[in-house]
Amino acid sequence: MATTSYTHRIDSDLRTQSEAIYAALGMSLGTAINVFLKKSVAVGGFPFDVRLDVPSKETVEAMLEAERVAKDSKVKALAVDDALEELKK
């Protein structure tokens, strides 16, 4: 297997923290990076979820419905105990 060198700038604190974590696991930062890259190739992308913190379509719809209901004067507000009693009927 032929190897190549790759240089990348990272924050020094991030490097120090990462090296400590991987040293505790018995490997160098370089080995950890190789593990990450090999797993990325094996799965065809990031080996973990990478996404924006955006609510799903269903969550947005539920939030909009909750706002609509909260503004509706025809909707009767109930205390928790009263609401549970209504559900039992």
Describe this structure in words.
- With 89 residues, this protein is mainly alpha-helical.
- 58% of the residues lie in helices and 0% in strands.
- It contains four helices and no strands.
- The protein is elongated and about 70 Å long.
- The termini are far apart.
- The mean pLDDT is 91.
Helix and strand layout, with pairings?
Layout: H1 12-24, H2 29-43, H3 57-71, H4 80-88
List keywords for this structure.
elongated; 89 residues; 0% strand; mainly alpha; 4 helices
Estimate the helix proportion, in percent.
Answer: 55-70%
> Topology as H/E string?
HHHH
Arithmetic mean pLDDT: 91
**Cα gyration radius (Å):** 26 Å
Concise overview:
Helix content is 58%, strand content 0%. By secondary structure, the protein is mainly alpha-helical.
